[in-house]
Amino acid sequence: MTAIALERAAGFDEGCVGRITTGVTITNDYDAERAESGLIAAEAVRSIALPQVLVDTGATTLCLPRSVIERLGLRARRDVAVSTANGTAVARLYFGAHVSVLGREGVFECLELPDGTEPLLGYTVMETLGLEPDMRRHELRVLPMERGNSYLRI
Predict the structure, then answer these.
(1) CA angle 49, 150, 126 (to 5 degrees)
(2) Cα 12–Cα 126–Cα 104 angle in degrees, nearest 5
(3) What are the tens digits of pLDDT across the range 106-126?
(4) What share of the chain is helix, strand, coil (3-state, %, to 5)?
(5) For the structural domain made of 20-143, what CATH number should be given?
(6) CA 104, chain centre distance (Å)
(7) Is there a contact between 133 and 57 (Cβ–Cβ < 8 Å)?
(8) Model's pTM, two decimal places?
(9) Quick one: which of 63, 95, 137, 139 is 20 to 30 A from 14 by CA?
């Protein structure tokens, strides 16, 4: 049996392969906390809406181009070793990125990408927010979070 015949027998569908992007809003969580405390005006909270962030199950966390991180004013945590398609590298890790996607929200670290690079939504962010790529429909699916049927586990 050929490799293609084996894939078809296993249910592989070439139509499932593709690219998923989603809209993501990212807010500087430190700014938001200061605004809630009355230390800065609500209008001073730095936030950005990114209409097309690549859903990347190969990326660990949120990855943003340097210029986006600068606009948000995120604070650097440290430099970390990362694995890339081209081998290992060093990237700067930032914290305090409040991510909102498809009605789900959380605060995450993010890795800095060079400018001109596409922002990435990594698997830990998706898992934490209860989002799952649907390769057949080329979209992110929101997992249930209601009593008796929740993706959250203890």
Answers:
(1) 35
(2) 130
(3) 999 999 999 999 999 999 999
(4) 25, 45, 30
(5) 2.40.70.10
(6) 12
(7) yes
(8) 0.83
(9) 63
